[in-house]
Design a protein that fits this description.
There is one protein chain. This protein is mainly alpha-helical and 70 residues long. Helices cover 87% and strands 0% of the residues. It contains three helices and no strands.
């Protein structure tokens, strides 16, 4: 799989994936709270936005790599 290959061979892709996973863990922690404050909502929105940005960057890297193989 392309993702696994980039994880094994590309430092930048590994960094992006690691950051993406960290945002995911933080979101899970927020969502597990029994009392959700306004600050939590703001933080959740920020984390989701950052996580999506990282995913977009990773997808862009995978697309560029596919082009190089073609």
């Amino acid at each position: 799989e392309l993702r696994a290959h980039l994880m094994a061979t590309n430092e930048e892709f590994r960094r992006l994936a690691s950051e993406h996973a960290e945002y995911h863990r933080k979101l899970e922690g927020l969502e597990a709270k029994s009392h959700f404050t306004q600050a939590d909502e703001v933080e959740e929105h920020h984390l989701k936005k950052q996580k999506l940005h990282l995913k977009d960057q990773m997808n862009e890297m995978m697309a560029r790599y596919k082009e190089q193989l073609a």
